[in-house]
Design a protein that fits this description.
About 80% of the residues lie in helices and about 0% in strands. By secondary structure, the chain is an all-alpha fold. It has a single domain, classed as Amino acid/polyamine transporter I. Helix 3 crosses helix 24, helix 4 packs across helix 19 and helix 13 crosses helix 17. The longest helix has about 40 residues. The radius of gyration is 22 Å and the shape is globular. One of its GO terms (molecular function) is transmembrane transporter activity.
């Protein structure tokens, strides 16, 4: 009893109770009035992406440039922690970085994203499906979105491993700039915004990709593809990652290794068994070349006349801004995790390594899975573009891609297991981090108590169920992330400014030793 009472006294209750109230209230609204809530969300999203879209665009490019400056400046030489060598091997570190992000979403979008762009006027303006429907996914999942993770991973890693701060929260990273204000109302507001943004981001992730897993089970075992089956899949994922997260870092390392092996095996199968090896490789090389040649233009293009859309929203408002917001909403926890597992590495190593391993895994997924699907579309074996235009279930389109390969059922089972493990590893890392938010103080190296981790594991599953029952479209789910990311973007700059102020002071201290 004493131990239980001790845990209860250590918890930061406002940051537990208020998010719970918000999540339950939002679930009730989405389930009771799905159409009305969707209209409200879309209206807010429209204002943010249409009128303030420049904020997201400039933030993305600016933060990318900041990370490159930090890596190659004197800041890059700072070592995170007092270890002579990194805490984890390069393989362990790389697998945890890739699987610690929303790797299940990366796989999901790899199969389908080229088709979502194919009918967009923007793609036709640039030169057509072959070159640009395969290029834009690399842009939207490339250096700029990873920069959001990188810059905060460095700031949080410095705060935890160099300064030894015991509060693992967004607000604590702002202490060098805001001072003791982070212990008062301003700090509580920052942390509350961060937690709600993270819940919104994870809800979007679950709501987008879990219907694919339900469709896979339906295809293999003959179950009816329904909302109920999707909720069952959510329950399976929740059970797996709850069990795993209770085992701590050891469970995360094992899960990351297993799902990375499955991922690489499936990539090899699609590349060498699908009969499109040359096409996949050549289209991938072309896409990377297009991206490199046009990167600055893609990063700054805003379409002021909205000529790439319906006159109200253009391609950049519908897609680029959504993706930047999507990654920003996820930045509440994942960079903390990357910072935590980077003990013993220099800041330069963290920046370049995260870019290298993260982008490599992401690009391999989009180039191989995406270009294989595109090849089947151009060969007339599937018509996923038509399904997208007709508003049909795109998950069935992904299933059709699998049906063009031998051993479809076995592949779909592997896909199911792989994505469940991806979800498990991703949410293991998120739960470990967000559980630390629940404490007033938690020394570096210590993990939150199991009941606290179990609470957040359950919390992460509630909101997605509400969204799934409301049967929100991709557009509506995008709205959730865009709205949640805006206040987080403002906090970004507070954290970056705090890092520069504190790191400069640290370098000066080292000179005087």
């Amino acid at each position: 009893m004493k131990n239980k009472n001790s845990i209860l006294s250590q918890l930061d209750w406002p940051l537990i109770i208020l998010p719970l109230i918000v999540v339950v209230a939002l679930c009730a609204v989405f389930m009771v009035s799905p159409e009305g809530s969707t209209q409200v969300m879309d209206s807010i999203r429209g204002f943010l992406s249409n009128e303030l879209g420049f904020f997201y665009i400039l933030s993305g490019l600016g933060i990318l440039l900041i990370t490159l400056y930090v890596a190659f400046s004197s800041y890059g030489k700072i070592r995170l922690g007092n270890l002579d060598k990194p805490q984890y091997t390069d393989f362990q570190w790389a697998t945890m970085i890739f699987t610690g992000v929303f790797a299940a979403d990366i796989v999901f979008y790899s199969f389908i994203e080229w088709a979502l762009y194919a009918a967009e006027p923007r793609i036709e303006q640039l030169g057509g499906i072959q070159d640009w429907a395969a290029t834009y996914p690399l842009f939207h999942w490339g250096p700029i979105p990873w920069a959001f993770y990188v810059v905060l991973a460095v700031a949080f890693g410095f705060s935890i491993h160099v300064r030894g701060r015991s509060k693992q929260k967004f607000s604590e990273a702002c202490r060098p700039l805001l001072g003791n204000s982070v212990d008062k109302a301003p700090g509580k507001i920052i942390d509350l915004i961060a937690i709600i943004a993270l819940i919104a981001g994870t809800a979007t992730t679950f709501s987008l990709a879990t219907p694919l897993l339900a469709s896979a089970l339906s295809r293999v075992f003959g179950f009816e593809a329904s909302t109920a089956l999707t909720v069952v899949v959510l329950g399976i994922i929740a059970a797996v990652y709850t069990i795993s997260v209770l085992s701590g870092m050891e469970g995360i390392i094992k899960s990351a290794s297993i799902c990375t092996v499955l991922f690489l095996g499936m990539l090899a199968y699609f590349l060498f068994v699908g009969g499109q090896t040359r096409y996949i490789i050549e289209t991938g090389i072309t896409s990377i070349g297009n991206l490199m040649q046009n990167f600055i233009g893609l990063s700054t293009w805003m379409d002021p006349l909205r000529e790439s859309g319906d006159g109200t929203f253009g391609f950049v408002q519908n897609w680029t801004i959504f993706y930047w917001a999507y990654w920003m909403a996820w930045c509440v926890a994942t960079p903390f995790f990357i910072g935590m597992i980077s003990k013993g590495r220099t800041i330069k190593n963290v920046i370049l390594g995260t870019y290298g391993y993260g982008i490599m895994g992401t690009f391999l997924s989009f180039i191989i899975f995406g270009n294989y699907g595109l090849s089947q579309q151009l060969a007339g074996k599937v018509d996923i573009i038509g399904m997208v235009q007709d508003g049909m279930d795109i998950n069935q389109g992904i299933i059709q891609i699998f049906e063009t390969l031998p051993m479809t059922e076995i592949l779909l089972i592997i896909l199911f297991v792989m994505m469940v493990l991806f979800y498990s590893t991703t949410f293991d890392s998120l739960t470990l981090v967000i559980s630390a938010y629940s404490y007033k103080n938690l020394p570096p190296g210590e993990e939150a108590a199991r009941p606290v981790r179990a609470f957040w594991a359950i919390m992460f599953i509630i909101f997605p169920i509400g969204l799934i029952f409301a049967e929100n479209s991709i557009n509506s789910l995008q709205s959730v992330s865009i709205i949640a990311a805006f206040p987080i973007g403002i906090v970004f700059y507070l954290i970056i400014a705090s890092f520069f102020k504190d790191a400069k002071k640290y370098l000066e201290e080292q000179k005087n030793i």
